[in-house]
Amino acid sequence: MGRVVALATVAASLTLGVALETSVRVPRSSTFVMSAAERQPAGARRRRRFAGSGVARHVSRGGEVPQAVKLLFGAGGIYAAFLYYGSLQEDVFRYASATGERFKEVWFLQVLEAVFNVVVGFLGLCATTGTQGLPQRLFACSGASQVLAKYCTNAALANGVSFPVATLAKSGKMVPVMVGSLVLGGASYTLRQYASVASIVGGTAIVSLSKNKKGAAAAQKTELLGFLFIASSLVFDGVTGGIQKRVKTEAAKRGVKPKPYDYMFWTNAYMLLTATLFAVGRGELVRGTAFCVANPLVMMKIMRFAACSAVGQSFIFYTIANFDPLVTTTVTTTRKIFSVLLSILTKGHTLDAQGWIGIVLASAGILVDAFSKNKAH
């Protein structure tokens, strides 16, 4: 846990500069006003110039918390919660009982994670008062597609895909969107976007191949199933993105604007409903409970995992509420790179030169994607 906090602090500090640049845009009118005031005394011009600059927006006024402190708090919370979340997620699926049995009840895990998020979302909803007249059918579709995406990611881990590879692969969310556009026509993309996706996919493939050089045929077959789950997860991510856009459009037509905790509560409520139906139908509630009773260490890790998910989402909504959503995207995107590095450093993954080349290539693609969004903004 100490390594997680230390890495989270470093990561949040590195991200702070980039995110601040994104969050602060000085209007051109500020420059015009300063130019018009050149006849004022030099001291007054300096004070006016400071007040019109982006720096002034990060200085406490009247006891207010500086924006830089708010961002460091939000980014640090996101990093700490989700770095530990990823570490626990990997621990759950790498755990082997005394009899050699491994945890496979993924829907059981999704139920517990959704329960924690629903509770925190409900508390946030009570504190901020919920919005009436929301498009519940679309929220239900969004919740179902999101929990299916999460299930596929965890199922990939349960079927032998390593955490670093799964995390890097999940960063290629534009892949199914681009494929759909190429096949069906529609949106066009820049060369930089294609290069970013190619770097992520290529880097992930290089890392995976470097780890499979000495793998047994049976293990490689199982991992192939894991990669099919990753591909399915990316497809569900694309579906979720489209539904979320429709939620905003439909809400605007109804004259309502969902608040952050509206999204958290209702989305997770439908995720919980979907996960419960699958868990009951597949008998995973009983088997998952039995496994956790027999292996209390796993149960403790799952509870912490679910708590980190809820806390991390709260920090995400806090950051969204105080800054442009693009700032949050930058933080959550770069967090994945540090999650991969933390896993390699603490979980005993061994990479040869080829593997590290893949890590660098995929990380470069992730960073290019994040920073190109900032530039476009």
Order of helices and strands: HHHHHHHHHHHHHHH
Q: Please report which band the strand proportion falls in: under 5%, 5-15%, 15-25%, 25-35%, 35-45% or over 45%.
A: under 5%
Shape: globular
The tally of strands reads 0
* Number of domain units: 1
Pfam family, one: UAA
GO molecular function, one term: UDP-galactose transmembrane transporter activity
InterPro entries: EmrE-like, SCL35B1-4/HUT1
Keywords: Membrane, Signal, Transmembrane, Transmembrane helix, Transport
Descriptive overview:
One of its GO terms (molecular function) is UDP-galactose transmembrane transporter activity. The chain has one domain (2-376). It is 79% helix and 0% strand. It has helices spanning 2-23, 28-36, 42-51, 67-94, 106-128, 136-158, 163-170, 174-184, 191-211, 217-253, 260-281, 284-294, 296-322, 325-346, 353-376. The protein has 377 residues and is mostly helical. It is globular, with a radius of gyration of 23 Å.
